[in-house]
Amino acid sequence: MLPTTQPNPYGGTVTDSTAPRVPADTSDPKFAAYARPDRIVSTQWVADNLETPGVVIVESDEDVLLYESGHIPGAVKIDWHTELNDPVTRDYVDGEGFAQLMSAKGISRDDTLIVYGDKSNWWAAYAMWVFTLFGHDDVRLMDGGRQKWEAEGREYTREKPQPIPTEYPVVDRDDSQIRAFLPEVRDAIGDIPLIDVRSPEEYTGERTHMPAYPEEGALRGGHIPTAKSVPWAKAANDDGTFRSADELQKLYLDDLGLQADGDIIAYCRIGERSSHTWFVLEHLLGFDSVKNYDGSWTEWGNVVRVPIVTGAEAGEAPRA
Amino acid sequence: MTDQTNAPLPGGLQEIADDFAAAAQNELLEILLEFSDELPALPDRYADHPELLESVPECQSPIFVIAEVEPADDPKDGTVSLFFSAPPESPTTRGFAGILQEGLDGRTVGEVLAVPADFPLRLSLTKAVSPLRLNGMSGMLTRIQRQVVEKSGQQA
After folding, report:
1. Residue pair A143/A241 in contact by the 8 Å Cβ criterion
2. What region holds the Fe-S metabolism associated domain (chain B) (predicted)?
3. Listed residue (A75, A83, A86) closest to A113, CA to CA
Protein backbone atom coordinates (compact mmCIF):
# COMPACT_ATOMS: atom_id res chain seq x y z
CA MET A 1 0.00 0.00 0.00
CA LEU A 2 1.37 3.36 -0.97
CA PRO A 3 1.13 5.85 1.85
CA THR A 4 -1.01 8.87 1.15
CA THR A 5 0.50 12.28 1.58
CA GLN A 6 -0.57 15.47 3.25
CA PRO A 7 0.78 19.01 3.54
CA ASN A 8 3.55 19.45 6.04
CA PRO A 9 3.84 22.59 8.13
CA TYR A 10 7.42 22.97 6.94
CA GLY A 11 6.56 22.44 3.28
CA GLY A 12 6.79 19.40 1.12
CA THR A 13 4.79 16.38 2.08
CA VAL A 14 4.95 13.76 4.75
CA THR A 15 3.55 10.31 4.96
CA ASP A 16 0.07 10.04 6.33
CA SER A 17 -0.01 9.83 10.08
CA THR A 18 -2.03 6.64 9.86
CA ALA A 19 0.89 4.89 8.17
CA PRO A 20 2.82 2.63 10.54
CA ARG A 21 5.55 4.57 12.29
CA VAL A 22 8.59 3.39 14.12
CA PRO A 23 7.48 3.55 17.75
CA ALA A 24 8.88 6.26 20.01
CA ASP A 25 11.38 5.43 22.73
CA THR A 26 9.21 5.20 25.84
CA SER A 27 11.88 3.70 28.07
CA ASP A 28 13.04 6.92 29.68
CA PRO A 29 10.68 8.96 31.88
CA LYS A 30 12.80 12.01 31.05
CA PHE A 31 11.69 11.77 27.42
CA ALA A 32 8.02 11.38 28.34
CA ALA A 33 8.03 14.83 29.93
CA TYR A 34 9.20 16.54 26.74
CA ALA A 35 6.66 18.17 24.44
CA ARG A 36 7.70 15.87 21.57
CA PRO A 37 8.95 12.66 23.18
CA ASP A 38 9.03 11.08 19.72
CA ARG A 39 11.91 13.37 18.70
CA ILE A 40 14.53 11.85 20.97
CA VAL A 41 15.82 8.33 21.60
CA SER A 42 18.32 6.80 24.00
CA THR A 43 21.57 5.08 23.14
CA GLN A 44 19.98 1.81 24.29
CA TRP A 45 17.08 2.32 21.88
CA VAL A 46 19.56 2.83 19.06
CA ALA A 47 21.49 -0.29 20.04
CA ASP A 48 18.19 -2.21 20.00
CA ASN A 49 17.10 -0.82 16.61
CA LEU A 50 20.22 -1.09 14.46
CA GLU A 51 18.47 -3.59 12.22
CA THR A 52 14.95 -2.18 12.33
CA PRO A 53 13.54 -1.67 8.82
CA GLY A 54 12.80 1.97 8.08
CA VAL A 55 15.33 3.25 10.59
CA VAL A 56 18.48 4.93 9.28
CA ILE A 57 21.17 6.00 11.73
CA VAL A 58 22.95 9.19 10.62
CA GLU A 59 26.17 10.56 12.11
CA SER A 60 26.90 14.26 11.69
CA ASP A 61 30.01 15.74 13.29
CA GLU A 62 32.13 18.81 13.47
CA ASP A 63 35.23 16.68 12.89
CA VAL A 64 35.09 15.51 9.28
CA LEU A 65 37.11 12.37 10.05
CA LEU A 66 35.40 11.20 13.22
CA TYR A 67 32.94 8.91 11.43
CA GLU A 68 35.81 7.24 9.56
CA SER A 69 37.64 6.66 12.84
CA GLY A 70 34.69 4.58 14.10
CA HIS A 71 30.89 4.88 14.08
CA ILE A 72 27.75 3.09 15.18
CA PRO A 73 27.37 -0.07 13.09
CA GLY A 74 25.28 0.64 10.00
CA ALA A 75 25.31 4.42 10.43
CA VAL A 76 25.76 6.65 7.37
CA LYS A 77 27.65 9.94 7.55
CA ILE A 78 26.39 13.35 6.54
CA ASP A 79 28.90 16.19 6.69
CA TRP A 80 27.49 19.69 7.22
CA HIS A 81 30.35 21.40 5.44
CA THR A 82 30.85 19.27 2.36
CA GLU A 83 27.33 17.85 1.91
CA LEU A 84 24.64 20.08 3.43
CA ASN A 85 26.16 23.41 2.37
CA ASP A 86 26.14 24.61 -1.20
CA PRO A 87 29.77 24.58 -2.36
CA VAL A 88 29.62 28.08 -3.87
CA THR A 89 26.86 30.22 -2.36
CA ARG A 90 26.62 30.56 1.40
CA ASP A 91 23.41 28.53 1.59
CA TYR A 92 22.20 24.98 1.83
CA VAL A 93 21.82 22.58 -1.05
CA ASP A 94 18.61 22.91 -3.08
CA GLY A 95 15.83 20.37 -3.44
CA GLU A 96 17.63 18.43 -6.15
CA GLY A 97 20.88 18.40 -4.25
CA PHE A 98 19.10 17.23 -1.12
CA ALA A 99 17.28 14.47 -2.99
CA GLN A 100 20.57 13.28 -4.48
CA LEU A 101 22.22 13.32 -1.06
CA MET A 102 19.40 11.38 0.58
CA SER A 103 19.32 8.89 -2.27
CA ALA A 104 23.06 8.31 -2.06
CA LYS A 105 22.75 7.69 1.69
CA GLY A 106 20.01 5.12 1.12
CA ILE A 107 17.39 7.27 2.84
CA SER A 108 13.73 7.14 1.77
CA ARG A 109 11.26 9.94 2.35
CA ASP A 110 9.35 7.96 4.98
CA ASP A 111 12.40 6.61 6.81
CA THR A 112 12.93 7.36 10.48
CA LEU A 113 16.27 9.16 10.82
CA ILE A 114 18.19 8.89 14.07
CA VAL A 115 20.88 11.55 14.11
CA TYR A 116 23.83 11.68 16.50
CA GLY A 117 27.23 13.29 16.57
CA ASP A 118 30.05 14.93 18.49
CA LYS A 119 30.02 18.15 20.53
CA SER A 120 26.79 17.41 22.46
CA ASN A 121 24.96 16.85 19.18
CA TRP A 122 25.49 20.37 17.77
CA TRP A 123 25.90 19.09 14.26
CA ALA A 124 23.30 16.39 14.69
CA ALA A 125 20.80 19.11 15.63
CA TYR A 126 22.05 21.20 12.72
CA ALA A 127 21.50 18.28 10.32
CA MET A 128 18.04 17.71 11.78
CA TRP A 129 17.24 21.36 11.26
CA VAL A 130 18.33 21.18 7.62
CA PHE A 131 16.34 17.96 7.10
CA THR A 132 13.36 19.84 8.50
CA LEU A 133 13.82 22.62 5.94
CA PHE A 134 13.12 19.92 3.38
CA GLY A 135 10.15 18.59 5.33
CA HIS A 136 11.61 15.19 6.15
CA ASP A 137 9.06 14.13 8.70
CA ASP A 138 10.54 11.68 11.14
CA VAL A 139 13.91 12.85 12.44
CA ARG A 140 15.05 12.12 15.99
CA LEU A 141 18.21 12.83 17.97
CA MET A 142 20.11 10.24 19.99
CA ASP A 143 20.39 11.79 23.45
CA GLY A 144 24.03 12.25 24.45
CA GLY A 145 25.45 11.64 20.98
CA ARG A 146 28.85 10.08 20.52
CA GLN A 147 29.96 11.09 23.98
CA LYS A 148 27.35 8.94 25.73
CA TRP A 149 27.66 6.03 23.31
CA GLU A 150 31.40 5.96 24.03
CA ALA A 151 31.04 6.46 27.76
CA GLU A 152 28.84 3.38 27.83
CA GLY A 153 31.52 1.38 26.04
CA ARG A 154 29.28 0.62 23.10
CA GLU A 155 30.51 -0.75 19.82
CA TYR A 156 32.00 1.28 16.98
CA THR A 157 33.02 -0.03 13.60
CA ARG A 158 35.03 1.33 10.70
CA GLU A 159 33.01 -0.74 8.27
CA LYS A 160 30.96 1.51 6.02
CA PRO A 161 27.50 0.50 4.91
CA GLN A 162 26.88 0.29 1.16
CA PRO A 163 23.52 2.05 0.84
CA ILE A 164 21.20 1.15 -2.01
CA PRO A 165 20.20 4.43 -3.74
CA THR A 166 16.59 5.39 -3.13
CA GLU A 167 14.03 7.37 -5.10
CA TYR A 168 14.00 10.36 -2.78
CA PRO A 169 11.60 13.02 -4.11
CA VAL A 170 12.79 16.50 -5.06
CA VAL A 171 11.19 18.75 -2.45
CA ASP A 172 11.63 22.50 -2.42
CA ARG A 173 13.39 23.79 0.65
CA ASP A 174 11.00 25.85 2.78
CA ASP A 175 12.97 28.59 4.51
CA SER A 176 9.88 30.44 5.71
CA GLN A 177 9.11 28.59 8.93
CA ILE A 178 12.26 27.77 10.91
CA ARG A 179 14.97 29.83 9.20
CA ALA A 180 15.53 33.56 9.69
CA PHE A 181 17.48 35.89 7.40
CA LEU A 182 19.14 39.17 8.30
CA PRO A 183 16.34 41.57 7.22
CA GLU A 184 13.84 39.64 9.30
CA VAL A 185 16.16 39.65 12.29
CA ARG A 186 16.71 43.40 11.95
CA ASP A 187 12.96 43.94 11.86
CA ALA A 188 12.54 41.67 14.87
CA ILE A 189 14.65 43.86 17.16
CA GLY A 190 12.35 45.18 19.85
CA ASP A 191 9.42 43.04 18.71
CA ILE A 192 10.43 39.40 18.81
CA PRO A 193 12.65 37.82 21.47
CA LEU A 194 16.16 37.16 20.20
CA ILE A 195 18.41 34.75 22.00
CA ASP A 196 22.14 34.65 21.61
CA VAL A 197 23.44 31.19 22.49
CA ARG A 198 27.17 31.93 22.18
CA SER A 199 29.64 32.05 25.04
CA PRO A 200 29.50 35.08 27.38
CA GLU A 201 32.77 36.41 25.92
CA GLU A 202 31.32 36.39 22.44
CA TYR A 203 28.10 38.02 23.65
CA THR A 204 29.84 40.94 25.33
CA GLY A 205 32.11 41.47 22.36
CA GLU A 206 35.34 40.62 24.14
CA ARG A 207 35.91 38.13 21.38
CA THR A 208 34.38 37.43 18.00
CA HIS A 209 34.74 33.66 18.01
CA MET A 210 34.38 30.73 20.35
CA PRO A 211 36.98 30.25 23.04
CA ALA A 212 39.64 27.90 21.63
CA TYR A 213 38.12 28.07 18.16
CA PRO A 214 39.58 29.63 15.06
CA GLU A 215 38.81 33.17 14.10
CA GLU A 216 36.20 32.85 11.39
CA GLY A 217 36.20 36.42 10.36
CA ALA A 218 33.73 38.67 12.15
CA LEU A 219 34.94 42.26 12.01
CA ARG A 220 32.90 43.46 15.00
CA GLY A 221 32.16 41.90 18.36
CA GLY A 222 29.06 42.12 20.51
CA HIS A 223 25.46 41.06 20.07
CA ILE A 224 22.23 42.05 18.33
CA PRO A 225 20.39 44.69 20.39
CA THR A 226 17.79 43.20 22.78
CA ALA A 227 19.17 39.65 22.36
CA LYS A 228 19.36 37.81 25.64
CA SER A 229 22.36 35.67 26.42
CA VAL A 230 21.56 32.00 26.95
CA PRO A 231 24.63 29.93 26.13
CA TRP A 232 23.54 26.68 24.46
CA ALA A 233 25.35 24.61 27.07
CA LYS A 234 22.79 25.55 29.71
CA ALA A 235 20.45 23.11 27.98
CA ALA A 236 22.95 20.25 28.16
CA ASN A 237 24.24 18.02 30.92
CA ASP A 238 27.93 17.27 31.30
CA ASP A 239 27.47 13.91 29.61
CA GLY A 240 26.13 15.56 26.46
CA THR A 241 22.47 14.68 27.11
CA PHE A 242 19.68 17.23 27.23
CA ARG A 243 18.47 18.58 30.55
CA SER A 244 15.08 17.52 31.87
CA ALA A 245 11.86 19.21 30.81
CA ASP A 246 11.56 20.82 34.26
CA GLU A 247 15.05 22.27 34.07
CA LEU A 248 14.50 23.55 30.54
CA GLN A 249 11.17 25.13 31.45
CA LYS A 250 12.76 26.92 34.37
CA LEU A 251 15.60 28.16 32.20
CA TYR A 252 13.69 29.40 29.17
CA LEU A 253 10.19 30.12 30.49
CA ASP A 254 10.60 31.09 34.15
CA ASP A 255 14.04 32.71 34.20
CA LEU A 256 14.13 34.14 30.69
CA GLY A 257 10.44 34.87 30.36
CA LEU A 258 10.03 33.42 26.88
CA GLN A 259 6.48 32.58 25.74
CA ALA A 260 5.92 29.18 24.20
CA ASP A 261 3.27 30.56 21.86
CA GLY A 262 5.27 33.48 20.48
CA ASP A 263 7.98 33.84 17.87
CA ILE A 264 11.61 33.39 18.84
CA ILE A 265 14.83 33.73 16.85
CA ALA A 266 18.05 32.09 18.00
CA TYR A 267 21.52 32.71 16.66
CA CYS A 268 25.14 31.93 17.41
CA ARG A 269 28.23 32.14 15.18
CA ILE A 270 27.33 30.06 12.14
CA GLY A 271 24.06 28.47 13.23
CA GLU A 272 25.28 25.21 14.70
CA ARG A 273 24.97 25.93 18.42
CA SER A 274 21.66 27.70 17.80
CA SER A 275 20.42 24.53 16.08
CA HIS A 276 20.95 22.81 19.43
CA THR A 277 18.82 25.48 21.11
CA TRP A 278 16.29 25.33 18.25
CA PHE A 279 15.84 21.62 18.94
CA VAL A 280 15.35 22.27 22.65
CA LEU A 281 12.75 24.99 22.15
CA GLU A 282 10.96 23.42 19.18
CA HIS A 283 10.82 19.79 20.20
CA LEU A 284 11.65 19.40 23.86
CA LEU A 285 9.62 22.41 25.04
CA GLY A 286 7.19 22.51 22.11
CA PHE A 287 7.41 26.22 21.31
CA ASP A 288 5.19 27.23 18.40
CA SER A 289 7.55 29.27 16.26
CA VAL A 290 11.31 29.03 16.65
CA LYS A 291 13.65 30.20 13.93
CA ASN A 292 17.35 29.70 13.60
CA TYR A 293 19.27 32.65 12.14
CA ASP A 294 22.02 30.64 10.46
CA GLY A 295 23.82 33.70 9.11
CA SER A 296 24.44 34.43 12.79
CA TRP A 297 27.40 36.43 14.00
CA THR A 298 29.63 35.70 11.02
CA GLU A 299 27.05 37.63 8.99
CA TRP A 300 25.81 40.23 11.48
CA GLY A 301 29.29 41.08 12.73
CA ASN A 302 30.39 41.98 9.21
CA VAL A 303 27.42 43.90 7.84
CA VAL A 304 27.76 47.68 7.48
CA ARG A 305 25.54 49.75 9.75
CA VAL A 306 23.58 47.02 11.48
CA PRO A 307 23.17 47.92 15.16
CA ILE A 308 25.41 46.16 17.69
CA VAL A 309 25.52 46.27 21.47
CA THR A 310 28.64 45.45 23.45
CA GLY A 311 28.84 44.47 27.09
CA ALA A 312 26.68 42.28 29.29
CA GLU A 313 23.41 44.24 28.90
CA ALA A 314 20.98 43.21 26.17
CA GLY A 315 20.56 46.82 25.09
CA GLU A 316 17.61 48.53 23.49
CA ALA A 317 16.19 48.69 20.01
CA PRO A 318 17.68 51.62 18.11
CA ARG A 319 15.27 54.50 17.54
CA ALA A 320 13.78 54.38 14.10
CA MET B 1 49.03 31.83 -8.95
CA THR B 2 48.17 28.24 -9.64
CA ASP B 3 49.65 25.67 -7.32
CA GLN B 4 51.10 23.66 -10.19
CA THR B 5 53.58 26.37 -11.08
CA ASN B 6 55.05 26.48 -7.59
CA ALA B 7 58.34 24.85 -6.71
CA PRO B 8 58.18 21.35 -5.19
CA LEU B 9 57.38 21.26 -1.49
CA PRO B 10 60.33 20.69 0.83
CA GLY B 11 61.01 17.68 3.04
CA GLY B 12 58.75 14.72 2.53
CA LEU B 13 55.74 16.93 1.90
CA GLN B 14 55.80 16.77 -1.89
CA GLU B 15 55.52 13.00 -1.80
CA ILE B 16 52.53 13.29 0.56
CA ALA B 17 50.94 15.92 -1.66
CA ASP B 18 51.47 13.65 -4.68
CA ASP B 19 49.79 10.75 -2.88
CA PHE B 20 46.74 12.86 -2.09
CA ALA B 21 46.65 14.24 -5.63
CA ALA B 22 46.67 10.72 -7.08
CA ALA B 23 43.92 9.45 -4.80
CA ALA B 24 40.25 9.27 -5.73
CA GLN B 25 37.96 11.69 -3.92
CA ASN B 26 36.50 8.93 -1.75
CA GLU B 27 39.98 7.79 -0.68
CA LEU B 28 41.21 11.13 0.61
CA LEU B 29 39.69 10.81 4.06
CA GLU B 30 40.98 7.23 4.34
CA ILE B 31 44.52 8.45 3.72
CA LEU B 32 44.05 11.23 6.25
CA LEU B 33 42.80 8.63 8.73
CA GLU B 34 46.00 6.64 8.23
CA PHE B 35 48.03 9.70 9.18
CA SER B 36 45.80 10.13 12.22
CA ASP B 37 46.22 6.50 13.25
CA GLU B 38 49.97 6.58 12.80
CA LEU B 39 50.73 9.81 14.66
CA PRO B 40 53.41 8.73 17.15
CA ALA B 41 52.67 9.00 20.85
CA LEU B 42 54.63 11.58 22.83
CA PRO B 43 57.94 10.39 24.29
CA ASP B 44 57.94 10.22 28.09
CA ARG B 45 59.82 13.48 28.53
CA TYR B 46 56.85 15.31 27.02
CA ALA B 47 54.06 12.96 28.03
CA ASP B 48 55.03 13.69 31.64
CA HIS B 49 55.36 17.44 30.99
CA PRO B 50 52.58 18.52 28.64
CA GLU B 51 53.12 22.13 29.70
CA LEU B 52 56.27 22.19 27.55
CA LEU B 53 54.18 21.95 24.41
CA GLU B 54 52.57 24.91 22.68
CA SER B 55 48.85 24.92 21.99
CA VAL B 56 47.43 25.74 18.57
CA PRO B 57 44.22 27.72 19.04
CA GLU B 58 43.50 27.84 15.30
CA CYS B 59 42.46 24.21 15.53
CA GLN B 60 38.94 23.37 16.64
CA SER B 61 40.23 20.68 18.96
CA PRO B 62 43.08 20.52 21.45
CA ILE B 63 46.44 20.06 19.78
CA PHE B 64 49.87 20.71 21.19
CA VAL B 65 53.15 20.84 19.35
CA ILE B 66 56.82 21.20 20.15
CA ALA B 67 59.80 21.38 17.82
CA GLU B 68 63.34 20.45 18.85
CA VAL B 69 66.40 21.54 16.90
CA GLU B 70 69.69 19.61 16.90
CA PRO B 71 72.23 22.33 16.06
CA ALA B 72 74.70 22.11 13.20
CA ASP B 73 77.64 24.31 12.14
CA ASP B 74 75.38 26.11 9.71
CA PRO B 75 72.14 26.90 11.54
CA LYS B 76 70.03 26.02 8.51
CA ASP B 77 71.45 22.48 8.54
CA GLY B 78 70.21 21.77 12.09
CA THR B 79 67.91 18.77 12.43
CA VAL B 80 64.29 19.34 13.43
CA SER B 81 62.30 16.85 15.51
CA LEU B 82 58.55 17.32 15.90
CA PHE B 83 56.23 16.08 18.63
CA PHE B 84 52.45 16.39 18.70
CA SER B 85 49.68 15.63 21.15
CA ALA B 86 46.04 15.43 20.04
CA PRO B 87 43.20 13.30 21.38
CA PRO B 88 41.73 10.36 19.47
CA GLU B 89 38.34 12.10 19.34
CA SER B 90 39.93 14.73 17.09
CA PRO B 91 41.09 12.56 14.19
CA THR B 92 41.19 15.38 11.63
CA THR B 93 43.56 17.38 13.78
CA ARG B 94 45.62 14.25 14.41
CA GLY B 95 45.72 13.62 10.67
CA PHE B 96 47.03 17.12 9.99
CA ALA B 97 49.66 16.62 12.68
CA GLY B 98 50.58 13.25 11.17
CA ILE B 99 51.17 14.83 7.78
CA LEU B 100 53.50 17.46 9.24
CA GLN B 101 55.24 14.85 11.38
CA GLU B 102 55.89 12.48 8.50
CA GLY B 103 56.81 15.24 6.07
CA LEU B 104 59.07 17.32 8.33
CA ASP B 105 60.35 15.28 11.28
CA GLY B 106 64.11 14.67 10.96
CA ARG B 107 64.44 17.28 8.21
CA THR B 108 66.67 20.33 8.28
CA VAL B 109 65.87 23.77 9.64
CA GLY B 110 66.16 25.11 6.10
CA GLU B 111 63.60 22.64 4.79
CA VAL B 112 61.09 23.29 7.58
CA LEU B 113 61.32 27.05 7.15
CA ALA B 114 60.90 26.72 3.38
CA VAL B 115 57.40 25.23 3.65
CA PRO B 116 55.07 27.77 2.04
CA ALA B 117 52.18 29.09 4.12
CA ASP B 118 49.66 27.83 1.57
CA PHE B 119 50.93 24.28 1.88
CA PRO B 120 47.68 22.91 3.41
CA LEU B 121 45.77 24.10 0.35
CA ARG B 122 48.09 22.10 -1.91
CA LEU B 123 47.04 18.73 -0.47
CA SER B 124 43.96 18.23 -2.66
CA LEU B 125 41.92 18.10 0.55
CA THR B 126 39.96 21.30 0.11
CA LYS B 127 36.80 19.61 -1.16
CA ALA B 128 36.93 16.62 1.16
CA VAL B 129 37.75 18.57 4.30
CA SER B 130 36.76 22.22 3.56
CA PRO B 131 39.11 25.24 3.56
CA LEU B 132 38.00 26.36 7.00
CA ARG B 133 39.11 23.13 8.61
CA LEU B 134 42.43 23.32 6.78
CA ASN B 135 43.14 26.57 8.64
CA GLY B 136 44.06 24.41 11.59
CA MET B 137 47.01 22.91 9.76
CA SER B 138 48.25 26.39 8.82
CA GLY B 139 48.17 27.26 12.50
CA MET B 140 50.31 24.25 13.36
CA LEU B 141 52.79 25.04 10.59
CA THR B 142 53.11 28.68 11.70
CA ARG B 143 53.89 27.63 15.25
CA ILE B 144 56.38 24.99 14.19
CA GLN B 145 58.23 27.46 11.99
CA ARG B 146 58.29 30.10 14.73
CA GLN B 147 59.66 27.62 17.26
CA VAL B 148 62.30 26.48 14.77
CA VAL B 149 63.36 30.09 14.14
CA GLU B 150 63.65 30.71 17.88
CA LYS B 151 65.55 27.51 18.58
CA SER B 152 67.92 27.59 15.62
CA GLY B 153 68.67 31.29 15.35
CA GLN B 154 68.01 30.91 11.63
CA GLN B 155 65.85 33.58 10.07
CA ALA B 156 62.73 32.50 8.26
Report:
1. yes
2. 19-147
3. A75
Residue among A141, A268, A280, A285 flagged as catalytic: A268
User: CA angle at residue A132 from A128 to A135, to 5 degrees?
Assistant: 145
Residues A17 and A4: beta-carbon distance below 8 Å: no
A268 is catalytic: yes
Shortest CA distance from B89: residue in chain A: A66
pLDDT in tens, A186-218: 999 999 999 999 999 999 998 766 655 555 578
Mean pLDDT along residues A229-241: 95
CATH number for region B13-152: 3.90.1010.10
**Is the pLDDT assigned to residue B61 strictly greater than 80?**
no
Verify whether the Cβ–Cβ distance A214 to B60 is below 8 Å. Answer: yes
pLDDT at A17 over 80: no
The complex scores an ipTM of: 0.85
Is the pLDDT at A155 greater than 70? The verdict is: yes
Taking CB atoms and an 8 Å limit, are A63 and B89 in contact across chains? yes
CATH number of the domain at A182-301, out of 3.40.250.10, 1.10.630.10, 3.30.70.360, 3.30.559.10? 3.40.250.10
- Say if B152 is an interface residue toward chain A (CB within 8 Å): no
DSSP letter for A83, please.
I
Q: Which helix (H) or strand (E) holds A96?
A: helix A95-104
Nearest chain A Cα to B27, which residue?
Answer: A68
Q: Which residue among B60, B93, B128 places its CB closest to the CB of A82?
A: B128
The Cα–Cα gap between B25 and B30 comes to 10
Q: What is the pTM of this model?
A: 0.89
A216 contacts B93? CB cut-off 8 A: no
Centre a 10 Å sphere on the Cβ of residue A57 and count the other Cβ atoms it contains: 21
Strand partners, A292: A179, A266
Domain boundaries along the sequence of chain A: 29-152, 182-301
Q: Do A69 and B129 touch (CB under 8 A)?
A: no
Phi, psi of A32 (to 5 degrees): -60, -25
Per CB-CB distance under 8 Å, the chain B contacts of A63 are 60-61, 89-93
What mean pLDDT do residues A221-240 have? 95
Task: Answer yes or no: same fold for A29-152 and A182-301.
Answer: yes
Classified by CATH at the fold level, domain A29-152 comes out as: Oxidized Rhodanese; domain 1 (3.40.250)
Q: Per-residue pLDDT tens for A277-288?
A: 999 999 999 999
Residue A123 parent element (H or E): helix A122-133
- For B64-113, the three-class secondary structure string (H helix, E strand, C coil) is EEEEEEECCCCHHHCEEEEEEECCCCCHHHHHHHHHHHHHHCCCEHHHHH
